[in-house]
Amino acid sequence: MLTSILLTAGFALMGAGIGAGIVAIGAGLGIGRIGGQAMESIARQPEAAGKIQTAMLIIAALIEVVSLFAVVICLLIALNAGGVAF
């Protein structure tokens, strides 16, 4: 009984950690790709640099918000698996 509970909690903690890592990797790759594509498009069309930069910053902020939300969910799963009740 106790080993089953500990095993379940361990799997939940491991899943939360892996989930948070995947979120961080995905956000880093997404923002890196946005930055690279924005620099490439600014190099091709310098007169549109202001609009490109504005759009790039808005999209990067949205990616950060989604990744922060996902990390918070992973932390809530980890805290709940650890026996902390809200």
Detailed description of the structure:
Pfam families: ATP-synt_C. GO terms for molecular function: lipid binding; proton-transporting ATP synthase activity, rotational mechanism. Residues 14-77 form the V-ATPase proteolipid subunit C-like domain. Its main location: membrane. It is found in: Cell membrane; Membrane. The mean pLDDT is 88. This protein starts with a helix and ends in a 5-residue tail after the last helix. The relative contact order is 0.17. The protein is mostly helical. It is rod-shaped, with a radius of gyration of 19 Å. The longest helix has 43 residues, at 2-44. Helices cover 88% and strands 0% of the residues. The protein is built from two helices and no strands. The chain has one domain: F1FO ATP Synthase.
Using brief descriptors, characterize the structure shown.
88% helix, 2 helices, transport, 86 residues, rod-shaped, mainly alpha, F1FO ATP Synthase, ATP_synth_F0_csu_DDCD_BS
